[in-house]
Amino acid sequence: MTGTWYTDQEAHAVFREANEAHARGELDAAAEGYRKLLEHGAAGPDVHYNLGTTALAQGRLGSAVLHLEAARRESPAADDIAANLALARSRQLDRVVGAPHPGSITERLAHVTPLEQTGVAFLIIWGMGFLLLAARRLAPQRLRLALAVGAALSLVVAVPLGLLVANRAWVDANVREGVVMVKAAPVRAFPSESGSVEFEVHEGLEVRLLEQSGGYVRIRLPNGREGWTPADGVTSRNWTTGGGSPTRGSARHGSSSET
Amino acid sequence: MRTRRTGSGGTPSWGALIALLFAAPVLAQEGVEFSIQTDSRRVGLEDVFEVTVTAAGAPADAQILLPGSPDVDIVNTRSGTHRSISMGSGAGPSIRTVRTVSLQMRAKRTGTIRLTPAVLALGDREWKTEALQIEVVRGSVPGRRRPSQQDQDPFAGLFPPGLLDQLNDFPVPRPRDAPAGPDMPGVHIPQREADVFMRTLVDSNRVTVGQQVTMSVWVFSRAEISAADAFTLPKAEGFLTEEVDAPTQLASQQRTIDGVPYRAYLLRRRALFPVKAGELTIGPASADIVTGYLYAGEKRHRKSRPVTITVDPLPPGAPPGMAPMQVGQWSVALEASRTVVELDQPFNVKVTLKGRGNVRGQTVPKLELKGDAFRVFEPKVEDQVDTPRGRVQGSRVAEYLVIPKRTGTFTLPSLSYPYFDPETRQYEVARSDPVQITVVPGRGGGSPVAQDSTQLEEPRDDAAARNVLGQQQGPRPIRVTARFESPSPPIYGRRWFWPAVFSPVMLLGLLAFIQGPGRSLLGGRKGDERRTLTRAAHRRLSAAVKLKDSGSQQAFLGEVEKAVLAFLTAQLGSPAQGLTQQALEEKLAAAGIAEPTRARVHRVLETCAMGRYAPGSGSAAAREQVLQEASALMDGWSRS
Prior knowledge:
The complex is a heterodimer of chains A (259) and B (640).
Chain A: H1 8-23, H2 27-39, H3 45-58, H4 61-74, H5 79-90, H6 105-111, H7 115-138, H8 141-174, E1 176-180, E2 184-188, E3 197-202, E4 206-213, E5 216-220, E6 226-230, E7 234-236, E8 247-248
Antiparallel strand pairs in A: 1-4, 1-7, 2-3, 4-5, 5-6, 7-8
Helix pairs in contact in A: 1-2, 2-3, 3-4, 3-5, 4-5, 6-8, 7-8
Chain B: E1 27-29, E2 32-38, E3 42-44, E4 49-56, E5 63-65, E6 72-88, E7 92-107, E8 111-114, E9 119-122, E10 125-128, E11 133-137, E12 196-202, E13 206-208, E14 213-221, E15 225-232, E16 239-245, E17 252-257, E18 260-274, E19 278-282, E20 286-291, E21 298-303, E22 307-312, E23 328-336, E24 340-342, E25 347-357, E26 374-376, E27 380-386, E28 393-404, E29 408-412, E30 416-421, E31 426-431, E32 435-440, H1 446-450, H2 497-514, H3 526-550, H4 553-572, H5 581-590, H6 595-613, H7 620-639
Parallel strand pairs in B: 3-11, 13-22, 24-32
Antiparallel strand pairs in B: 1-2, 2-4, 4-7, 5-9, 6-7, 8-11, 9-10, 12-14, 14-18, 15-20, 16-18, 17-18, 19-22, 20-21, 23-25, 25-28, 26-28, 27-28, 29-32, 30-31
Helix pairs in contact in B: 3-4, 3-7, 4-6, 4-7, 6-7
């Protein structure tokens, strides 16, 4: 990501040019424009949606799933995002058979936690609780009991909200998900060329990234099947809230841009 | 059609003529009748026709020279002998021997073919038949039969040319233009045990390493034998063996050895494949031969002679990958059960080695697939061995289970198999054709697609409408307006988040600090504690009032003392219990308590102490007085 960010005016200009390229059928130019916006700090669900939809039209399922999922996270209720994301997934070649791995309760809780809203609510209620405690010190005797009750209620509500935020922070730091970005990637038993090929995954498949060793990353399919695949064929989709480019080929330390 | 020529002085034998279909020249001289017949004068190139030569009343040592032509192939030869009894007028019955030789032939060209006459020679006398002329056309003449396996001589190919003919029950003459060979080379009547003897015959005494030698163990007997017990196969060291024929019942065949008719019994026939060069010996076979039946039977132990085989090494110039046992005629084939397979779906690949030679001694070329596109499991090898006409042939199939691990189009490479052909005495290399395999991804997208709102609808009867608007079939369009958001870390990663979390706690602590030590952190005052202790002292004093009349003196005074000390603790801000009278006095003085009050404290505590240690001194009036003193102390204190 470059250090120069577009102004709002510049961003709108680039966005408009990319849309016009898309309208002319110049999908590569359109995708390049949307990608520039992300690289220059003009992110958001609209940019991710357009980039994912353009990739879908190009047949690049990996990029399509990656950016449409990013758009869905930022705008969960948008039906056009959901439709195109479902279309991209339906075109994915791999059919994962077997019961999906449910994941831990902390992961499931983190996935349903709206981080921004929860964090803000936590800070407000938390601060209000202590404000009431301070007011109780200064208030006359007849108001002190009411202020104490109000403070206790505020803190009782604030503490679970804080735990939700902390859980989300832990999951973000320890659980990585990714998308296969190459047409086909072998999955081996060991992180080496000499490792036997256990199975093959294809572009657009969403996997869990477990660890990295050399040029390989250990992935886990939704049904629990695991193996090592070249790291440059998988992109982490653990983007930051509010935009940003996903990282490629890294379970924990990746920083290169998705191309 | 039949022609007949009668010799001078001969008497016709009607029994020998009954079976004849066509007229043939017959010689009848001194009771000898000699004729030839054919089942057809017009045949096709693909047809087999039969020529039968019959000699009736000929002496046993008479030689028959069969008809022949360079334009025909003799497919099969059959011969037989039977005796006929004819009743002559006034001379009694006469017994005649009728010999029949049938030749099954096939023409090699079209046109008219002339067969040389058959000749019956006895000493310096000869009887001749006519020369048959056969018209040969292309293809097959309707009604004619084509050659079948049954028409083939079962011994053809098993023995060297000439040896088979000499195993007939009487000398079968060759065509006149063919040279007469020696009589039964290699098989002669032994001087001893001439009535029954055993022989091990081989079809060739000189072979190459890996080339087949067919070994047969025969018993020749003048009389019929009923059993061959304790049969011991000859040892054949240096050979790999393959069973060809192992009769379960003795069946005799008429053969002639050195001009003497014998019954021949095949005991075992095996194919031998030498594994090394040099002089290899097949050891003797032995058996107990039983002649006759029941009580007339006689058992004789017989042993065959060893046979030596000269095995030549393979010639130089072997191609790479050549093994010593790769001898014969071989072909190799590569076959996949499917050429378009799904990823991770197993399929079979067969490598078939087929041909003539030691089938079980061959090693099927290994299927080696480089790279990681396929996982190949160990093959399952199956052999199919057959021995038609005594020659070992068949196939060896290695069936591999292969699982594709990569998508794409791959080529299973051609397999090669070098071998030495003993017939051409040259090295050959059999090669298979490469096989192309296309691996496609497995069928996916089942259930998720079903929920896809973009899935195509079933066609409906809306075709009549002018503008049919179905559901969205492709991706939804892009957005034309955007609201941009700068990338930012999650809320817990922003710089102000943690200060915002801890600042309320710090602010509360700062407020408590500012308000000074008079209040606790949560807002409590020290005066509140004093009031609490004071109230507790008053509650104790009330309890002492209840003990004034009903309780013991010690309990009453103890309660008064505790009430006063609790009161003093509340007023002084430090515990008064446990202090000596003097220390308490000093503490009260230091706290600025007036002298009258200090004196009252002193009196009350003295009274309580004395009352507890001097029982009986505490009357009701005294109790009332100390109670009033304590009450006055606490009330007056509070008022001051």
